[in-house]
Predict the structure.
Amino acid sequence: MSHGRIILRPMTEAELGARLPALIEGYAEDLQRAGRASAATARTESERQLVDMLPNGIATPDTLLLVAEDGGQPVGWIWLSLPTPANGRDTAWVYNVEVDADRRGRGYGRAIMRAAEDELTERGVTRFALNVFGDNPVAIGLYESLGFRVTQLQMAKTVSPRS
């Protein structure tokens, strides 16, 4: 389904504040499902990582927090990290992409990712990458259809002490 041209614009501090609770909660749930945090520690870990990665909110250096709009109406957002010596001089990272709940299943995720690619290309970025949790087949399928390929694979197994 065509949505015209998705426009990405800078997020305001108020918009970030409005989206943070869902971001923190969603990532805490991901950490629990992946076995990387317990129910008791997941939210704290999610908040800690967010503070580390966005110490200055929307003014964090080398960070793009962008609202995706279709026809002037917000439909989602994307968080990009521009290339730096710390994260790879030629690689930008997608830290989060989210389509608003009432807009899902309509092609906006694909449109936001394509608009982000255009934004990065205009900035001279030649490569962008992302991490995705293995239990998210919809996202994995989207990213593969957009040309992303697995470059690393992390696996884990939960074990119990033998009695």
Remarks:
- The chain has four helices and five strands.
- Residues 75 and 102 are 8 Å apart (CA to CA).
- The first helix runs from residue 13 to 33.
